[in-house]
Amino acid sequence: MATGKVQHPTLAERREVGKAARKRMPRSNLEGWQPAPDRSDPVALLEEQDSTREPDLVPVRHGRMMVSPFTFYRGGAKIMAADLSTLPRAGLDVQLCGDAHLSNFGVYASPERTLLFDLNDFDETLPGPFEYDVARLSASFVVAARDNGFSEAGARQTATRSIAAYREAMADFAQMGTLDVWYSRLDADEVIARGISSTNKHRKKVATRAEKLLAKARTKDSMQALSKLTEVKDGHHRIVSDPPVIVPLRDLASTFGLSDDEVHEGLLRLLRAYRATLPDDRRRLLERFEMVDVARKVVGVGSVGTRAWIALFRGRDDDDPLFLQVKQATRSVLEDHLPKSRFRQPGERVVQGQRIMQAASDIFLGWTKGVQEDIYYYWRQLRDMKGSAPIEEMDLQRMTYYAGVCGWTLARAHARSGDAVALAAYLGSSDRFDRAMTDFAARYADQNERDHSAFVEAVRSGRIEAVEGV
């Protein structure tokens, strides 16, 4: 079987790639960003996405995006992907998250049950220019900081810290062995320790708050989901009905024109196809559980309207649950502007991208095609000690620290798939890249505010429908 030859350039050659890229595309070219003269209408881009989503949930998505410029930014990955397509690039590609805003980082449990801090959303993952993720992350800090009422200088400070941390971490990874880079990870206790040492004035307050967040994350498992998401009927647990956020399949089957038997057979086919994507040991583990109920569950902001399900499994008895999330995977918004994924199945694109970028991934991560044509899913645990930082509660000091942690984490994810040596050589040791990207971040935050205003006006004028408060 023929295979392509893998190139192994020397360290000197890899450094030269980065230096040549700097000459070809100076870092200062990132400054002075302006929207393209023929820029697409942002509301029209969202309407294009809406056409492929569940019609009854589209107004919920709009309502969530209306809340603030930051919630709009979270749901506007497609808009920013179009804008990033015109951004100058150095030609240094990595596996992109594709939606690396500050709320798509958090803690979760590794297979060894250690809480890790990492990226946690990969719906848009795709290989591409490293600048795309750095731009998405840094701009998100300016947007969130403004939402929190920080000064413009403070907002820029948070963005700069995320960029500088990325650059500094990449320099460190460029000095590390290949396996050392791959094994690098940031556990949650280390995040707390770093935060305490860097915020002496508020040490006790920071430590207490962080410990509470981690303690809460450790309780977010299938047992907690069982108590919150189910009721007992005829002596067994089943998922509660709480429309429109949670709608059991038993209440939706007629909507799809399916009988109970057809639903049951369709679920079994999906489950068998999903199990086939797992390694043998995980497949054997999953086979110890029986699927007993399924429901549609609305999640997130940008994902609202795509099909997302939760599935309840029973192990040894009703008090031994497993909850899996089955989330629709569509084309990455980046595929409108970058080469298409080499994976025909969007669910596999998400799973493989996640495995490349994360320090450790969910043991039940897999994918499958849906029952209906052109519908694809990826599977993972619903609650596996997941937790996220309360962005809206952060003061400037805490957000600046958090920006540094996110920047380091993004650099580590990129170093696993890209060439850390070439990237470090391009970024350099000065703050030139930091200043240029901060300028982009602030300018893009301005554009995001204009887009949010246009979106709200589209709702008020009746062009699009929104349901607020859901």
Question: Would you write up a description of this structure?
Answer:
With 470 residues, the protein is of the alpha+beta class. It folds into two domains: 272 residues, no CATH class; 160 residues, no CATH class. The chain has 18 helices and twelve strands. Strands 7-8-9-10-12-11 form a six-stranded antiparallel β-sheet, with helices on both faces. Helix 3 crosses helix 4. The longest helix is centred in the C-terminal third of the chain and has 29 residues. It starts with 10 loop residues before the first helix and ends in a 10-residue tail after the last helix.
Structure, briefly:
This protein has helices at residues 11-24, 42-50, 58-66, 69-75, 77-84, 130-147, 152-174, 178-183, 188-198, 203-219, 222-229, 249-252, 260-275, 280-286, 346-357, 396-417, 420-427, 432-460; strands at 93-96, 105-109, 115-119, 126-129, 230-233, 236-239, 246-248, 290-297, 308-314, 321-329, 366-369, 376-381. It is α+β, with helices and mostly antiparallel strands and 470 residues long. It has a six-stranded antiparallel sheet with strand order 7-8-9-10-12-11, sandwiched between helices.
Question: What does the secondary structure layout of this molecule look like, with pairings?
Answer:
Elements: H1 11-24, H2 42-50, H3 58-66, H4 69-75, H5 77-84, E1 93-96, E2 105-109, E3 115-119, E4 126-129, H6 130-147, H7 152-174, H8 178-183, H9 188-198, H10 203-219, H11 222-229, E5 230-233, E6 236-239, E7 246-248, H12 249-252, H13 260-275, H14 280-286, E8 290-297, E9 308-314, E10 321-329, H15 346-357, E11 366-369, E12 376-381, H16 396-417, H17 420-427, H18 432-460
Antiparallel strand pairs: 1-4, 2-3, 5-6, 7-8, 8-9, 9-10, 10-12, 11-12
Helix pairs in contact: 1-17, 3-4, 4-6, 6-7, 6-16, 6-18, 7-16, 7-17, 7-18, 9-10
